[in-house]
């Protein structure tokens, strides 16, 4: 987990900041602060490549103070919840 966070931090540049993580209920979450979620995810995809976790990866964002979540990946995902 820490290695992945460090990789994200080292490669995302100035458009995002890793804000922590949690692990439990069979999932791992990494929280990232950014004003450009789509651009940040595009950068992530470039350096994360096809690592083992990519088939189970889910990516979504919400604006601070907002309850609505926008799903970015996978495109056919209809609900997104953090356990």
Assign a percent range to the helix content: 25-40%
Based on secondary structure, the structural category is alpha+beta
Number of helices: 2
Please mark out the parts with pLDDT under 50 across 5 or more consecutive residues, or reply none. Answer: none
For the record, give the distance between the C-alpha atoms at the N and C termini, rounded to a whole number. 17 Å
Secondary-structure element order, as H and E?
HEEHEE
Question: Could you write a compact summary of the structure shown?
Answer:
With 83 residues, the protein is α+β, with helices and mostly antiparallel strands.
What can you see in these coordinates?
- A hairpin with a 2-residue loop joins strand 1 (16-24) and strand 2.
- The protein has a domain at 2-55.
- It has 2 helices and 4 strands.
- The chain has a two-stranded antiparallel sheet. Strands 3-4 form a two-stranded antiparallel ribbon.
- The model has no long low-confidence stretch (mean pLDDT 87).
- The longest helix has 12 residues, at 37-48.
- By secondary structure, it is an alpha+beta fold.
């Amino acid at each position: 987990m820490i290695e992945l966070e460090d990789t994200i931090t080292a490669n995302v540049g100035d458009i995002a900041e890793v804000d922590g993580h949690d692990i439990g209920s069979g999932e791992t979450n990494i929280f990232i602060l950014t004003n450009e979620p789509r651009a940040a995810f595009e950068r992530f995809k470039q350096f994360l490549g096809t690592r083992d976790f990519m088939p189970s990866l889910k990516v979504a964002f919400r604006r601070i103070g907002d309850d609505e979540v926008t799903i970015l990946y996978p495109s056919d995902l209809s609900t997104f919840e953090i356990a």
